[in-house]
Amino acid sequence: xxxxxxxxxxxxxxxxxxxxxxxxxxxxxxxxxxxxxxxxxxxxxxxxxxxxxxxxxxxxxxxxxxxxxxxxxxxxxxxxxxxxxxxxxxxxxxxxxxxxxxxxxxxxxxxxxxxxxxxxxxxxxxxxxxxxxxxxxxxxxxxxxxxxxxxxxxxxxxxxxxxxxxxxxxxxxxxxxxxxxxxxxxxxxxxxxxxxxxxxxxxxxxxxxxxxxxxxxxxxxxxxxxxxxxxxxxxxxxxxxxxxxxxxxxxxxxxxxxxxxxxxxxxxxxxxx
Length: 273
Known about the structure:
By secondary structure, the protein is mainly α. The chain has a single domain (67-270), classed as Vanadium-containing Chloroperoxidase, domain 1, CATH 1.20.144. Helix content is 56%, strand content 2%. The chain has 14 helices and 2 strands, in the order αββααααααααααααα. The chain has helices spanning 10-15, 50-53, 63-75, 82-91, 103-106, 116-132, 134-140, 145-149, 159-163, 171-186, 191-207, 213-230, 234-249, 257-270, and strands spanning 32-34, 37-38. The protein has a two-stranded antiparallel ribbon with strand order 1-2. Strand 1 (32-34) and strand 2 (37-38) form a beta hairpin. The protein is globular, with a radius of gyration of 18 Å. Residues 1-22 have low confidence and may be disordered.
């Protein structure tokens, strides 16, 4: 699954009103909403209504829209560059690969074997952060940059899906920033690096020419709002505690240093443009 649209699972998620696990079994089997996408922690609650607190996207020819266009144009030169390659990898949200988007920032190889609680935490919260973007997406159905500027995107096989999936807010940015907040809470000594990677993750959507700057900013706001709501979820908090213990135990392995060096070089290249 190189890219998924969560639109098809919103109704399924709302209908799955099972009670929270009474015994807080953090690794209990979890239903799939669709292939590769498992039920989130807020499955028994209404999805966060992003349309109720986000402003509408910038109007055509407004100053904010002109800023969106200028930011998009500024990144056009990155097509085919190492930063474009990193943005392409960032677009994939399939597990197990997606679990390691933040591994270099955290300094830990996140996988189902050595960090099962953290792995599950990221799998389930992805659904919560991503679904939270959809009320506003559906309300506004904003056109994506590539539909306006006719430039390439870094995941051309996803073009047809992206054309029918509203641009505002960015679901990937909601997920990436939600994960950044989650991980910075678990590993506070790495918070700056994690948050910087979270911002670059959102920027990857602009590099890929699939989101405007204001889409990513709104997506990050949605991720933060969903993360705030998760603070009241007992199963989420129990899994956070287990993940924190995993990381403190020293059983986790470090990520591949060559991969991390390539990531640093790619980010550095993008920030010189």
